[in-house]
Automatic annotation (TrEMBL):
Molecular function per GO: DNA-binding transcription factor activity; transcription cis-regulatory region binding
UniProt family annotation: Belongs to the LysR transcriptional regulatory family.
Ranges annotated as spanning the membrane: none
Record keywords, A-Z: DNA-binding, Transcription, Transcription regulation
Database matches in PANTHER family: HTH-TYPE TRANSCRIPTIONAL REGULATOR (PTHR30126), HTH-TYPE TRANSCRIPTIONAL REGULATOR METR (PTHR30126:SF25)
Keyword Cell inner membrane tagged: no
Coiled coil: none
Protein name: LysR family transcriptional regulator
PROSITE patterns in the cross-refs: HTH_LYSR
Domain HTH lysR-type: residue ranges: 2-59
Length: 299
């Protein structure tokens, strides 16, 4: 009556709340996905959800299939991984995402190195925009999430990778050049550059809840943010590994926050994946290379 693809589509539709986004994630056209839903409705003789509703409202039949998908899909992924391991202990699937904008600079070259060492592992780096990464991990769409945020839940295990310091990046001509640390009160006359996420998720706000810069300015990428700092357009709180090349060329300088802001980077995985050798290998590689300060290439 229904197939695994139908359950996967239903679960993803609930997550994305958009037929078009859901179709894109499934590598389908919106019309093909719509046809898939209509075909399933014809089979079961009932509507799955109310068209053009926002948020999407599922029918009783649609809700039943949705709940079934949430139960079954993670177990299917587990079985696939187990069978892959039996077939080849050097192979498997590693679909990961980064819940940390600045991690791209050091992760991409290290993924290339990892793939040379583990050629039988299907590695895919998924863009984190528009979906809940941890929910996708639990459901089985992802196998690993790099994050500095830990959620208290039993269906996810967080493997500690390394500790890092978040520093304030400042333009060369900044008035704070003579200071060893920056305090929250000194943001009052500053433009604070930040990634386009809710302010509640910014490391700086968790550290300084009452931070009140003169202006908040969202910036999409780390490289763009660094160039804006060097040009004197604003300042930003960034992980220390981002700043190395720019500081070496004196395009900007950094100062610790008062008090210092230290964070941990974790690999979030499902409990059944913790002992997979290729996941352990990536985590070990990241941890070992953290001792080299994860400095990205110079600009």
């Amino acid at each position: 009556m229904f197939e695994i693809k139908h359950l996967r589509s239903m679960v993803l539709l609930e997550e994305t709340q958009s037929l078009q986004t859901c179709a894109t994630r499934l590598c389908l056209t919106p019309s093909a996905l719509s046809h898939q839903f209509k075909e399933l409705e014809a089979r079961i003789g009932q509507r799955l959800f109310v068209r053009k509703s926002q948020p999407i409202r599922f029918s009783h039949a649609g809700q039943q299939l949705l709940e079934l998908g949430k139960q079954i899909l993670p177990r299917i992924i587990e079985a696939e991984q187990a069978l892959t391991q039996l077939q080849s202990p050097q192979g498997g699937r590693l679909h990961l995402t980064i819940d940390c904008h600045s991690c791209y600079q050091w992760l991409l070259p290290r993924l290339a190195q990892y793939q040379q060492q583990w050629p039988l592992v299907d590695v895919d780096l998924v863009s984190p925009s528009g979906f809940d990464a941890i929910q996708s991990l639990v459901r089985g769409d992802l196998d690993l999430v790099l994050t500095s945020e830990v959620q208290a839940r039993g269906d996810v295990q967080y493997l500690r990778l390394f500790e890092f310091e978040v520093k304030m990046a400042l333009p060369p001509q900044s008035e704070f050049a003579s200071q060893s640390q920056i305090s929250a009160s000194q943001l009052q006359n500053q433009t604070l550059l930040h990634y386009p996420v809710p302010k509640s998720r910014l490391d700086l706000i968790s550290h300084w809840p009452k931070a009140a810069p003169q202006r908040w300015k969202p910036v999409n990428s780390t490289s763009e943010m660094l160039q804006m700092i060097a040009a004197g357009i604003g300042i930003a709180a960034l992980p220390e590994w981002v700043l190395g090349g720019y500081e070496q060329q004196r395009l900007l300088f950094s100062r610790s926050l008062a008090p210092k802001l230290k964070r941990q980077l974790y690999a979030a995985v499902r409990p059944d994946s913790v002992r997979l050798n290729y996941i352990q290998a990536l985590c070990e590689q990241i941890t070992q290379q953290a001792t080299q300060r994860l400095t990205p290439p110079s600009p």
